[in-house]
Amino acid sequence: MATAHSLGSMPFFATLFALCVTTFPTLAGGLSPSPFIVPVQRLVNTPTTGHSLVRAGQARLQAFSKAHSQVNGIPGDHAALAPPAASLTDQIVTFTINPVVNGKNFSLIVDTGSSNTWVGADPANRLQPGLGLDLFEVTYGSGAVLGDETTNTVNITPGLAVENQSIGNALLSEGFDGVDGIMGFGPVDLTQGTLLDNAESTIPTVMDNLFAQGTISNETLGVFLAPTTTDDPVNGELSFGGVDTSKMTGPMSFFQSTLPFWSISQSATFGGVTIMDTTTCVVDTGTTLLMLPEDAVTTYQDLIGATLDPTTGLLSINEAQLSNLTTLSFIGTDINGETQHFDLTPNAQLFPRAFNTEIGGSADDILLITASSGSNDASTIDCIMGQSFLQRTYSAFVTPNGNPDAAGTVGFATTPFTDATTN
After folding, report:
1. Which of 159, 179, 337, 343 has its CA 20 to 30 A from that of 275?
2. Span 195-203, average pLDDT
3. Residue 288 phi/psi, 5° resolution?
């Protein structure tokens, strides 16, 4: 387990920067000097409940564990279409991108936790069915889709188009109200098993094809998500082919991704007390909360004195406990072998108060973003770094040299929101 350095009163990520200034991993063509910047829309899903947020996170974890087993050849049921445990509209916020395909405009969820791209959740906004192409099927824990694969040009933004992209056209879907589908930004291995007639094959992702077609000089996706405190769809962007340094306030440190998902291995401390031994966490834009193993959340709750609010299902604290709240630190080893800290300030651990009433709470409640995965089973995936973490960092997802068979890396850097008092 990584050993924590003394943080004292240093701000979020200060230790990281003092220890080591890392550079990007070696990439084909080097860093793109002018990556394509695409705005991300923020869709606020109401009404929902805090209980729904927790259930949706736990359902995602179950889906990740199942997909991990399938990719690694562990026997298990195929991802059959079934009523989802929780719908994507149970996430308080969904981040979307708006590509044009075959003259149609689509609103697609930005999902680093999956890799298939598909449209047609809204039956009124579907592509012409494919002719003789494979059927595809994907379950997300928080939704499911069945449809046919077709090939088309995906116009992400003016000047950024993916030619001959294999894209799913939904015939049946569950859990995608208010959006047209998903653009998956996970590693390509996650597409294996989703083609019903060709289960051993993978489907090149949007990022794979952009790199292969020479549109971007390296297969890097940068993600900037601002904290959600209002209903305004502002302050989100994707950067294709590099990172947007204008959104970063410090250098970026990189970590090896060890799962078929974008992931980081880390332990966690609260106020210097270890609450989580080293485990692997999925880095997921499709989950609202910070989902940790059950015993880690129990220890965290006990140290704070928090209670489980029966109305929202989230951890709740009072003003006195808020004044004593301290740093929640995630500790990992970067690709240079250096120990790094990712620290959530007390304010960053709070659920946005602007949405308290929209999840069934009271306006003056003090709720927390950390929830239990419902498991301590080391053989399953029991940790997600969701939106609540990603909104305090700039993140990058790198497929080295555009080689989907090579281990990817995940990078983090500070932003103006890292130490912001937003909640």
Report:
1. 337
2. 90
3. -75, -50
Q: For the chain, count helices (H), then strands (E).
A: 6, 26
Mean pLDDT of 143-148: 90
pLDDT of residue 130: 63
Listed in sequence order, the residues at least 6 apart from 59 whose beta carbon sits closer than 8 Å to its beta carbon are: 84, 85, 86, 141, 142
Residue 131's pLDDT is what? 61
pLDDT at 322: 96
H/E stretch holding 40: none
Place of tokens 């049946």: 172
- At 59, the pLDDT band (50, 70, 90 cuts) reads confident
Mean pLDDT (the chain, rounded): 83
The residue from 90, 111, 180, 189 that is catalytic is 111
Q: How far is CA 195 from the centre of its chain?
A: 24
Residue with tokens 């003056």: 364
CA 165 to chain centroid, in Å, comes to: 23
Task: Average the pLDDT over 369-380 and give the result.
Answer: 84
Instruction: Report in angstroms the alpha-carbon separations of 95 from 33, 39, 62, 92, 110.
Output: 26, 10, 22, 10, 6
Complete DSSP assignment for 310-368: TTTSSEEE-HHHHHT---EEEEEE-TTS-EEEEEE-TGGGBPPGGGTGGGT--TT-EEB
Our measurement of the distance from residue 49's CA atom to the centroid of its chain's CA atoms, rounded to an integer in Å, reads 20
Q: What's the CA gap between 5 and 3, in Å, rounded?
A: 7
**Range of weakest confidence among 330-334, 339-343, 401-405:** 401-405
**Residue 377 designated active-site:** no
Please classify residue 354 by burial: count the beta carbons closer than 10 Å to its beta carbon, then call 0-12 exposed, 13-18 middle and 19+ buried. Answer: middle
Catalytic residue among 284, 309, 334, 365: 284
3-state secondary structure 205-233: CHHHHHHHCCCCCCEEEEEEECCCCCCCC
Tally of CB atoms within 10 A around 37:
18
What is the Cα–Cα distance from 337 to 225, expressed in whole angstroms? 28
Q: Which of 365, 359, 366 is nearest to 304 (CA)?
A: 366
CB atoms near residue 407 (< 10 Å): 13
Dist CA 300 CA 240 (whole Å): 37
What integer pLDDT is reported at residue 82 of this predicted model? Answer: 31
284 annotated active-site = yes
Tell me what the mean pLDDT of segment 111-128 comes to: 92
